[in-house]
Amino acid sequence: MTPTDELLSLAHDIAREAGELARRRRAEGVHIAATKSALADIVTAADREVEALIRERLARARPDDGFFGEESGAEQGTSGITWVVDPIDGTVNYAYGIPAYAVSVAAVEGMPEPTRWRALAGVVFAPMLGELFHATAGGGAWLTLDDHPQRLTVPAHAPAAGALLATGFGYDPATHDGDLARVGRVMPLARDLRRIGSASLDLCYVAAGRLDGYFERGLNPWDHAAGALIVEEAGGRVGGLPGGRPGKDLTIAAASELFAALEAAIDEH
Ligand code: IPD
């Protein structure tokens, strides 16, 4: 097994265990433990417990690696590898019993900062759907369902009859007017628009050809670390502001032809 495959295998096992814990806790009943930056930005006790489990498993298996998680913060390592983790991506869905939520785990090398890291391995596991999306740098993107891995490929050409797009609305209410104006500019390209509520799944759905494109402002590193690698390994393009990497200001994912059209529509003033 290559070192990258070892990272993937660990991410895979931990994401499955964490996803099962999240699913179990949801079945037992969920309550919102706190509201963070905005009304929509919530954390449940399960988010914290699931992240603690992931952090403990990673520390046990790879004590020299760094950690960067949504709920429990960052810790620098000495190995050059950092784990970027969202224990439950789609917490609002989780709280309301909508099955579109996922555990997202990525191993990155370099500075633990999205414009400077290189993602090596990423896993997004949706426990209610039993779907595990995964990728390694140079090893392709895959969806494993019922133990059957299937390779993912983003269609090369933009759909002739309008694209199925997804977006999201970052938690900062001050950005919502601008987000809605963007939606208006992008709609002429769209067959229809989805707001799934889990950025990691939005990205994986682009990789799987279930969505033609996705864009959102306000994402945090743990929302896109694994999903962006999965899109790129499926042959899609992921970026941010023109020429930049995905990040808080903007994340766009699509096949390259559509990417350019989306970028232009989003940018228009
Ligand atoms: C959120 C989801 C949502 C997106 C937000 C994210 P969380 O992640 O991915 O779809 O619109 O920007 O923060 O808070 O549920 O982990």
Cα-atom Rg, whole angstroms?
17 Å
Structural class: alpha+beta
SSE succession: HEEHEEEHEEEEEEHEHEHEEH
Give the helix tally: 7
End-to-end Cα distance? 50 Å
- pLDDT < 50 stretches: none
Overall mean pLDDT: 94
| Spatial strand order of the main sheet | 4-3-5-6-7-8-9-10
The largest sheet is: 8 strands, mixed
Share of helix, binned: 25-40%
- Which percent range describes the beta-strand content? 25-35%
Global morphology? globular
Number-wise, the strands total: 15
Small-molecule binders here are: D-MYO-inositol-1-phosphate
Descriptive notes:
- With 269 residues, this protein is α+β, with helices and mostly antiparallel strands.
- The chain has seven helices and 15 strands.
- An eight-stranded mixed beta sheet has the order 4-3-5-6-7-8-9-10, sandwiched between helices. A five-stranded mixed beta sheet has the order 12-11-13-15-14, sandwiched between helices. Strands 1-2 form a two-stranded antiparallel sheet.
- Helix 4 (176-186) packs across helix 7.
- The structure holds D-MYO-inositol-1-phosphate.
- D-MYO-inositol-1-phosphate is lined by residues 70, 86, 89-91, 168, 170, 197-199, 216, 218-220, 223.
